[in-house]
């Protein structure tokens, strides 16, 4: 009975209604707390965002952790003809489960139906982290994130760190042996991922690793993707031609 007000006419738990109540509760807490002079709620959004000392913005997202179950929309994974990650790791990843987040879907902004705003966002953070354990995978991702932060923070925000994380998972499928992820192979893996990123940017499509029907470039301006492809090619060319490039990049 406590959940009745958050249930849709179809009998589903509404992400939008949960977020709305959560926003009200956080606003009340901010108003009553002793830090209300330095913490302000960000207006004009259904997300719960706090601006702290006019310098930092913190977003708090309501979520359900779904451990030990795997969504039907990702049931095709792992693909039967690919030897990575192996049955034991697959079992570990699926045991991590997934999270359901109450978030605005920016790619549908301005044209969301109430049904879409009631829907929850699937997130696989723990499963992806489990998948990318071992070898130089984490180091590879860390370098890619740094390259993105320093060189690919572009107008239109075409790339974020999640694109990098996704492409590392695809690279793991292409190079399934653990020896492919030895420290000595780090340069090859970086080059492979950057070239794959260029291909995705030029095709204007980057499939989610677990939900390949979901395009992570959806809603991104084509001009921003083209600009990102050019910038990524400059990075890749520098790394391919200069053995000491990462020291200065």
TrEMBL record:
Residue span, Mab-21-like nucleotidyltransferase domain: 3-131
GO cellular component: nucleus
Entry's Gene Ontology molecular function annotations: metal ion binding; nucleotide binding; nucleotidyltransferase activity
Record InterPro entries: Mab-21-like_nuc_Trfase, Mab-21_HhH/H2TH-like, MAB21L/cGLR
Protein keywords: Developmental protein, Magnesium, Metal-binding, Nucleotide-binding, Nucleotidyltransferase, Nucleus, Transferase
Keyword Phosphoprotein: no
Localization terms from the record: Nucleus
Gene3D superfamilies found in the cross-reference section: 1.10.1410.40, 3.30.460.90
Residue span(s) of domain Mab-21-like HhH/H2TH-like: 136-233
Protein's name according to its UniProt entry: Putative nucleotidyltransferase MAB21L1
């Amino acid at each position: 009975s406590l959940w009745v007000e958050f249930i849709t006419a179809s009998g589903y738990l509404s992400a939008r209604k949960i977020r709305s109540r959560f926003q009200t509760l956080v606003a009340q807490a901010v108003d009553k707390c002793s830090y209300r002079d330095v913490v302000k709620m960000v207006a004009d959004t259904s997300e719960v965002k706090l601006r702290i000392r006019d310098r930092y913005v913190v977003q708090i997202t309501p979520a359900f952790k779904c451990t030990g179950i795997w969504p039907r929309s990702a049931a095709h994974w792992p693909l039967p003809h690919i030897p990575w990650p192996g049955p034991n790791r697959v079992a570990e990843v699926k045991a991590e489960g997934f999270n359901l987040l109450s978030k605005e879907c920016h790619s549908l902004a301005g044209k969301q139906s109430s049904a879409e705003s009631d829907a929850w966002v699937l997130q696989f953070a723990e499963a992806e982290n489990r998948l990318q354990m071992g070898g130089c995978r984490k180091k590879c991702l860390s370098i890619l994130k740094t390259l993105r932060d320093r060189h690919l923070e572009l107008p239109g925000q075409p790339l974020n760190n999640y694109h990098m994380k996704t492409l590392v998972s695809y690279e793991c499928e292409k190079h399934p042996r653990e020896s492919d992820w030895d420290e000595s192979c780090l340069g090859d893996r970086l080059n492979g991922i950057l070239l794959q990123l260029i291909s995705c940017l030029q095709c204007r499509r980057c499939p989610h690793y677990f939900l390949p029907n979901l395009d992570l470039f959806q809603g991104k301006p084509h001009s921003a993707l083209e600009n990102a492809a050019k910038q990524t090619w400059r990075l890749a060319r520098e790394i391919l031609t200069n053995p000491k490039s990462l020291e200065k990049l």
